[in-house]
Design a protein that fits this description.
seven-stranded parallel β-sheet, alpha/beta, three-stranded antiparallel β-sheet, 10 strands, single chain, 16% strand
């Protein structure tokens, strides 16, 4: 993994936008995520789009997950979040913004259809990821198989509590979701995980430096041939090899840094 440690959320968003803009300008398929962490990145990409620096006209978007049973017009549905926070503000074709169907009569069939759409599109070129305090990516909670595909999952109680800030109360958070599986995520050509704040420090350290384990789903990044982790100093605070990661990135050849810009 490439570990990039910076001083602020704004720097995390700027570097993440460099990577995503590179693939977008090539007409790549982008895996998009929700939650609070990616929002600064989306704002930066929208700014760059309006400045004429990046286009999404030939891209397809594939969202990581969606709540089961939450109407798409609900402000916390991921359909609403992706459109409202990102896709409606750039030049991606709305027909090419794909989000798992949490309202399908047959959820199993809808999950298979979502997998098929990704494959038929040629796969995801870069998948944006956040990380939960318990190490989940997408909504692959602890015990999720590393080979799992898009499926329905029950949220961990900690995830329900973490997401309650987006709802009136924890009782309003749906317990079931549709999520890309760890196997689905791992098929993407490039994984880009972002994290900020001390609340994510333990999960980041365990995922990067701990053992490969289904108890820490994000540790699956250890198996990927191209995984980039961009974090701020707070999220990096529990890393044992923090100084080495900073040294490595500081001495990265400039041409490698520039290629994403």
């Amino acid at each position: 993994m490439e570990i990039i440690i910076v001083d602020s959320e704004a720097e995390v968003a700027n570097i993440a936008s460099d990577y995503l803009a590179y693939y977008a300008n090539k007409g790549g398929n982008l895996g998009v995520a929700t939650g609070s962490t990616p929002l600064a990145t989306y704002r930066e990409l929208i700014r760059r789009h309006r400045a004429g620096e990046v286009t999404f006209k030939d891209c397809s978007f594939f969202a990581l997950d969606e709540y089961v049973g939450l109407p798409i017009e609900h402000e916390q549905s991921y359909y609403h979040v992706i459109h409202n926070e990102f896709s409606d503000h750039v030049d991606v074709d709305p027909a090419r913004v794909h989000i798992p169907d949490g309202l399908a009569d047959d959820i199993g069939a809808a999950c298979e259809d979502y997998e098929r759409k990704i494959i038929e599109a040629g796969g995801i070129d870069i998948q944006l990821l956040g990380i939960g305090t318990n190490g989940h990516v997408g909504f692959n909670e602890p015990s999720s198989s590393f080979s799992s595909l898009t499926r329905i999952k029950t949220l961990h109680p900690q995830t329900v509590l973490d997401n309650a800030r987006f709802f009136d109360s924890a009782d309003d958070v749906p317990y079931h979701v549709v999520t890309q599986g760890l196997g689905t995520i791992s098929r993407a050509g490039h994984l880009l995980l972002l994290a900020t704040g001390t609340a994510k420090a333990h999960a980041i350290a365990a995922s990067i430096e701990g053992p490969l384990s289904v108890s820490m789903p994000a540790s699956v990044l250890q198996l990927h041939p191209r995984a980039t982790v961009v974090i701020d100093q707070a999220a990096a605070s529990e890393l044992k090899n923090k100084e080495y990661y900073e040294f490595t990135y500081a001495h990265k050849p400039q041409w490698q840094k520039d290629m994403w810009k």
